[in-house]
Specification:
30% helix, 437 residues, four-stranded mixed β-sheet, 2 domains, UDP-n-acetylglucosamine1-carboxyvinyl-transferase, Chain, alpha/beta, single chain
């Protein structure tokens, strides 16, 4: 694995970037189109580690896929909810969406299916999803360690029924259940505790299900407006043509890069206020710190202020931008306090611990209080060699510090292949733009 020393930009820049297709939407669309009746054509598909293991898993489960990587296109011949094999061993790498979504997918089958991943995956909790599956009648076992992958599913179709979903559970567990529930023998209803984590990702799943012609019913508390219950009607998804949006989490790095440079302007093409992704709200977060931002239906434009201000904010609804924001806070005036980060401990690495370690190397004062990260920026950001913990978001976010100050080296840069193989090439577009008068 190689290291890369980031060269600081010469100054502010004006540039337009179109990030690759959304990982979250790509993997959801692959599952829904595989379950659909008929053929779907998916465009602007992300081809990266997390989606490649999803494709491999779906093929092993009998889904017929015509993949044109050069064109960013996949034709999916849907199964109508039938799992075409009675036995499969699925390797999910370190892709949380893949192991979670395919676990639920396998519950529709008739046979035995084993799901596993890399060493880090074996330390990422999956017990809450297993309990949800068991509560709707699925037999699931742990061959090695209770609560963690690998898991073995002995399936005989999905019985269905009523569930309760806790506020602190990963939204991907709920999304996994929602996507397969139309094929249960009995209607699935999910009662939701107040204060759901990462709710925009659940909303994304439901809106995408609607694009495949099956719409869950969401009931909200009449007094608080909070989500209270989801009712998933029995039925079949219908094949469709679907263009995957650019990835809003990936766009956060370029929005942040512009925010760090007074007078810089970035336009993110293909993302706007019609997006299915909650992370488009990151532009508003930077606006609260002093940036100028605007959004229409097809683009986001942001310009950097003379001085960023520290921020106190709850990131429960957009935890995937926490690392990006933490690096931006290095250059802000005053303390920043980031709340709602409890899910970060169980990602590709313990992201709270990793952030504390690496921000400290750069000179920041850092304190973790429960699920809150408190950052006091340094007077001068120091050069450092940044460990990435095989976490793509650590590499991409901390590279931003190197665009401002010399001597920042990112270790194991290949980890960005998980979601954004061309990240450093696209970052170079901004650097080249900064050289242009």
């Amino acid at each position: 694995m190689s290291d890369l020393t980031i060269l600081p930009f010469a100054g502010p820049f004006q540039a337009t970037i179109t990030p690759p297709g959304s990982k979250s939407l790509t993997n959801r669309a692959l599952v829904l189109s595989s379950l659909a009746r008929g053929t779907s054509t998916l465009r602007n598909v992300l081809f990266a580690d997390d989606t490649v293991v999803m494709l491999d898993g779906l093929k092993k489960l009998g889904v017929d896929l015509e993949v044109d990587q050069a064109a960013g296109r996949i034709r999916v011949h849907g199964t109508g909810g039938v799992v075409g094999v009675s036995e499969a061993e699925l390797f999910c790498g370190n892709s949380g969406t893949t192991i979670r979504f395919l676990s639920a997918f396998c519950a529709l089958g008739c046979g035995v299916y084993t799901l596993d991943g890399v060493d880090r995956m074996r330390s990422r909790p999956i017990g809450q999803l297993v309990e949800l599956l068991r509560n709707v009648g699925v037999r699931v076992e742990y061959p090695i360690s209770e609560g963690f992958p690998p898991i073995r599913i002995s399936a005989a179709g999905l019985p269905g029924g009523n569930l309760r979903f806790g506020a602190a559970q990963s939204s991907q567990f709920l999304s996994a259940i929602l996507q397969v529930s139309p094929y249960a023998r009995h209607e699935v209803r999910v009662d939701l505790e107040p204060g759901q984590t990462s709710w925009p990702y659940v909303a994304m799943t439901m809106r995408l299900m609607d694009r495949f012609d099956l719409t869950p019913e969401l009931i909200r508390d009449p007094e608080t407006g909070e989500p209270k219950q989801i009712i998933i009607p029995r039925g079949v998804f219908r094949g469709t043509d679907y263009a995957v949006e650019p990835d809003a989490s990936s766009a956060s790095y370029f929005l942040a890069a512009a925010a760090l440079w007074p007078g810089a302007t970035i336009t993110i093409a293909g993302l706007g206020n019609n997006s299915l992704q909650g992370d488009v709200g990151f532009a508003e977060v930077l606006k609260k710190m002093g940036a100028t931002a605007s959004m229409d239906s097809h683009s986001i434009t942001l310009s950097g202020p003379d001085q960023l201000e520290g921020i106190e904010i709850d990131l429960r609804d957009m935890p995937d931008v926490a690392q990006t924001l933490a690096v931006v806070c290095l250059f802000a005036d005053g303390r920043s306090v980031l709340h709602g980060l409890h899910t970060l401990r169980h990602k590709e690495t313990d992201r709270l611990a990793a952030l504390s370690n690496e921000l400290t190397k750069l000179g920041a004062g850092v304190r973790i209080d429960g699920d809150t990260l408190i950052i006091d920026p340094p007077k001068t950001v120091m050069p450092a060699s940044i460990a990435t913990y095989d976490d793509h978001r650590m590499a991409m976010s901390f590279a931003l510090a190197g665009t401002k100050v010399p001597g920042v080296t990112i270790q194991n840069v290949e980890c960005v292949n998980k979601t954004y193989p061309n990240y450093f090439s696209d970052l170079q577009i901004l650097r080249e733009a900064a050289k242009t008068p």
